[in-house]
Write a structure and sequence with these properties.
The protein is α/β, with parallel strands linked by helices and 206 residues long. The chain is built from 7 helices and 7 strands. Bound molecules: guanosine-5'-diphosphate (GDP) and magnesium ion.
């Protein structure tokens, strides 16, 4: 079917990101911004591609800092989108060196934020498409359910998958998908999944 015709059946248009700017970083729950903007928060294991996704989605290459040495800082980063909502980059979890000896799989900052922050309208959970069966990601989905959060899943680095890995990822997602609002295959490299994800986000930002 031609795209124009498909377009007629779309319920939500893409979320158009007209502008995106860094707002602030905080390292403790008593520093959170008081702005009453709806928040879409992004969570996932360290190195899953969260910063890269934020840059890709907003079309701003240097917006979020990307790095190949994960897990150093535990910060919450706020980005203002279209002056109407926040994209929130939460600390990564599951990075062995940082988490070793910790009682919880993720830090207090991350858990408490997801549990208590009133402004969250959606949690976007990023899962590395090459490792779709990590226990820590399962725990996160259980925690999101426990907190009553709406969440959707993004499978990152999809360009790295071979055909058989794609089948494996699809199968693994069946275990996750009961409560997930969406599952989007994403590649920041090729842009695959970007429009689809923006379409999903539009439903939460009005
Ligand atoms: N091939 C490929 N590499 C990616 C993709 N997304 C992220 N990466 C790489 O994965 C690494 C970690 O990315 P980063 O965004 O810093 O992860 P974060 O720790 O979750 O913020 C970097 O080397 C990125 O270039 C993707 O879609 N495709
Ligand atoms: Mg990052």
């Amino acid at each position: 079917m031609p795209v124009a015709v498909l377009g007629l059946f779309r319920y939500y248009p893409d979320m158009k990101i007209r502008n995106a700017r860094f707002y602030k970083s905080v390292s403790a729950l008593d520093q959170l911004p008081e702005e009453q903007l709806p928040e879409i928060v992004f969570v996932g294991r360290s190195n899953v591609g969260k910063s890269t996704l934020l840059n890709s989605l907003t079309g701003r290459k240097g917006l979020a800092k990307t790095s190949s040495t994960p897990g150093k800082t535990q910060l919450i980063n706020y980005f203002v989108i279209n002056d109407t909502c926040f994209f929130v980059d939460l600390p990564g979890y599951g990075y062995a060196r940082v988490d070793k000896g910790r009682k919880h799989e993720w830090g207090k900052l991350l858990g408490e934020y997801i549990r208590t922050r009133d402004h969250i309208v959606l949690v976007v959970l990023l899962i590395d498409s090459r490792h779709p069966e990590m226990e820590s990601d399962h725990h996160m989905t259980e925690f999101l359910d426990y907190c009553g959060r709406s969440y959707g899943i993004v499978l990152t680095k999809y360009d790295k998958l071979k055909q058989k890995d794609k089948a494996r990822a699809r199968l693994a997602m069946k275990r996750y998908s009961f409560n997930s609002k969406f599952i989007v295959n994403y590649s920041a490299l090729s842009g695959q999944g970007k429009e689809e994800l923006l379409e999903q986000l539009a439903a939460y930002t009005g």
